[in-house]
Amino acid sequence: MNKKELTTFLLKARTKTYMGNGGKVKATLKDSYQLEHGQGKWLYRDVYWSGNGIFMGLEVIYYKNIAVWSMSYYGNFKKMKEDEIDSILRSALLKNWKTVRIWKKVEWKKGNYRYVCKPGFKGSINNMAGSEQIFKNKDIVYFFFYAGGLLKVL
Fold it and tell me: Is there a contact between 149 and 69 (Cβ–Cβ < 8 Å)?
């Protein structure tokens, strides 16, 4: 397994699932939602729960059916409607999909919205942690925390 291939697959899989509003499959865990994207020996799976303006979940990448990378997350969008936050967030993520925002700072603006992703330290595919925020004017209307990294090198 090559870490560059892993990173490329992760970025592409995200464009095919949440960012691209695709990859929906029958969820295996009660009350969850599940998104998947496979390519050759790679499989990306995102399982999450959502309700009351919050969501939390887990992304996992499998290589040859072995979990090799994972990231957990928690987000809060209580100050916005779900379709409004999805529209703004998808726009920001798709605009920056090639940027490895989970370990590099990213800022994006559209109208009165501003998206900021701030890693907590100089991370890599090996380990990462940080936060995202969306501001509407100067008010924080969405926040998101993440942490994860490499599980195995094959």
Answer: yes
